[in-house]
From TrEMBL:
Stretches with biased composition (Low complexity): 66-84
Protein name (database record): Transport protein
Transmembrane parts of this sequence: 6-22, 88-106, 112-131
Tim44-like domain boundaries: 168-297
Keywords assigned: Membrane, Transmembrane, Transmembrane helix
Domain of life: Bacteria
Native source organism of the sequence: Desulfovibrio psychrotolerans
Length: 300
């Protein structure tokens, strides 16, 4: 009876450990981790989800078709290997767990001449195969990140840029700061989103530093310390929308709504992500970089 109780506890803790390891392996998130941090301007509309700008049926159908084609292509290339590994691991896990439970219930361990010997062998074999399986997944993810993220991902993103456009009806008013070009700004906003996400995937914190405020940089650096493993984020569609641009003292404050379709590490399906990014720049220094002052999640 005592041996059976010990076996139950061993199974319980082994299962918890397996889930923890699988979570650490698969938990790769985009820059910012889906959190709000940094400074936010005193702008009431930015705390609510802005209304969708009117779009034509043809444009909506074209956008949906592009996202569907990109998703089908990615699933066709990546799903079979993942399915093979998952099926193999599930089969072995089921066999090992079944054997362990059978040994526990029917006293198979006593037949080997030692207390719980069969249990220990099954647990040891299960842990070995589990670590081997998880290590293979991690190595595959790390290998795909820098390679695909370097050439293939940027190539796919570059091909997609030509099919993207900003919102047809701008949400900002006519009173823009002097010399502020909204079209040029939105082009730069799209480019900086891609660059920062690429740098985050590589955990290139030094590159992120030059485009962020101290507060934002400290949070990104903290997240990189907690999750130092490089990842892979595919940006399928990016639509930046200028929500507001105004002067505050010597600074120009600009708020951008990013409506992004992306696919993260380990995901087989793409998802939509909507965030408000707040930028600032010295009014008298147009040659300077725009600085990311804060990231704000949209309340739904």
């Amino acid at each position: 009876m005592n041996r059976r109780l010990v076996s139950v506890f061993i199974i319980f803790f082994m299962t918890l450990g397996a889930f923890a390891l699988m979570h650490d392996t698969a938990d790769a998130r985009k820059m910012g981790g889906g959190k709000s941090f940094g400074s936010k301007p005193s702008y009431q509309r930015s705390t609510q989800q802005p209304a969708q700008s009117p779009t034509s049926p043809a444009r909506t159908q074209n956008t949906n078709e592009q996202a569907r084609q990109g998703q089908q292509a990615q699933q066709g290339a990546a799903a079979p290997p993942m399915g093979a590994r998952s099926g193999f691991g599930g089969m072995l896990g089921g066999m090992l767990m079944g054997g362990l439970i059978g040994s526990m219930l029917f006293g198979g361990g006593a037949g080997l001449g030692g207390p719980g010997m069969l249990d220990m062998l099954l647990i040891g074999g299960g842990l070995f195969l589990l670590f081997r399986f998880l290590r293979a997944r991690r190595m595959a993810a790390e290998g795909a990140g820098p390679q695909a993220g370097g050439a293939q991902t940027h190539e796919r993103a570059a091909n997609a840029w030509g099919n993207l456009s900003t919102a047809s009806e701008p949400a900002y008013g006519p009173d823009l700061p002097a010399g502020f070009d909204p079209d040029e700004f939105l082009q730069g906003a799209k480019a900086i989103y891609v660059r920062l996400q690429s740098s985050w995937d590589k955990r290139d914190i030094d590159d992120i530093r030059q485009f962020t405020s101290d507060e934002v940089y400290e949070e990104i650096a903290r997240q990189a310390t907690e999750d130092p493993t490089p990842g892979k984020t595919e940006l399928l569609l990016i639509t930046p929308q200028l929500i507001e641009a105004r002067e505050v003292g010597q600074q120009i404050i600009a708020t951008v709504l990013y409506d992004v379709m992306l696919r993260e590490d380990g995901d087989t399906h793409s998802r939509q992500d909507r965030e408000l990014w707040h930028f600032s720049r010295d009014r008298d220094r147009p040659e300077d970089f725009w600085v990311l002052e804060g990231i704000q999640q949209i309340e739904r």
